[in-house]
Write a structure and sequence with these properties.
- There is one protein chain.
- By secondary structure, this protein is α/β, with parallel strands linked by helices.
- It has a single domain, classed as TIM Barrel.
- It is built from 12 helices and 12 strands.
- It has a 12-stranded mixed β-sheet with strand order 7-8-9-6-5-4-3-2-1-10-11-12.
- α4 packs parallel to α6.
- The longest helix is centred in the middle third of the chain and has 14 residues.
- The two termini are about 30 Å apart.
- The protein binds iron/sulfur cluster (SF4).
- Iron/sulfur cluster (SF4) binds next to α11.
Amino acid sequence: MTDRIIPIIRATRATLPPGRDLAAAPEGELVDLRRRRVRDLRISVTDRCNFRCVYCMPKEVFGDDYAYLSRKQLLSFEEIERVARIFVDLGVEKIRLTGGEPLLRKHIENLIERLAKLPVEITLTTNGSLLAKKAQALKDAGLHRVTVSLDGIDDAVFKRMNDVDYAVGDVLDGIAAAAAVGLAPIKVNCVVKRGSNDDQILPLARHFRNSGHILRFIEYMDVGSSNGWCMDEVLPSADVVARIDAEFPLAAIDPNYPGEVAERWRYADGGGEIGVISSVTQAFCATCTRIRLSTEGQLYTCLFAQSGHDLRALLRKGGGDEALRREIAAIWRGRDDRYSEIRTAATALPAAKKIEMSYIGG
Ligand code: SF4
């Protein structure tokens, strides 16, 4: 099994169908210094969350006295819509709403209604805690689908990972509610931290097989400067795939589109699809089409960035859309990020002061 996996993973990524290679972006199209298009805009709508996941928002850092952004610092829905409209005009095809926990942002349905007027796919990543209550309203507002984080199916393990005693059952209810209103296909993301929840890989696979939902396992990353990351706690995706394949034979499948983050596998017996996201052991910067807007209007060209570009000042200075568009295009054109390709022990250190995942979203 081991021999077969490793080469296939590499091969799949290299054999994108002819013409779907990002490097060949059409003439005149907005590309960065590595000829990558801008396709995915991720918008963080809050830096707050009701969970304290140990790999993202450890309690000891994000306590009650943590200085969260104030309401007036946040971009308004009108401002977010203005920026989103320009990005769609520049080539963005998908908008993902993130946080913190985006469902904590009051009246988020109103923002979704605004964005739903744009010719773009709108998705949202949530911890599922408020999903059962909000699924119908999100769907009615125009949301297309959701991704739900779930780091274990065993209650004790899940509670240890979210560190606020939140039960698995409530998240599963949220997933069921989202499925019932048609916010599908639903992706379920599990961050795997070796020694903490890697014993949940097979129980999660058993639970979501034949459910129609797509289970994905994310390698534990050195995002931000607070989670005490170390390589020993990273379980490579190849090991995750090997563990599942030993019980449920898997077959590799091609990406849905160039630059798709997850590597896709299907159960050979038709039991559905899983994915692995391997930012640490299989860098995918070469096809990265993502840009991130923070909740107070900073634009980040990489998840592991240390600083951003202030769009809020431009938005509030009364500059017109043309000025904003020029600024955004210039930021993308000057982009050269490839952090996962150059990650070293040094860059992973807290001293690197990278932006926090809970602030910028995944
Ligand atoms: S590390 Fe940065 S450039 Fe690389 S894939 Fe992630 S966001 Fe993109």
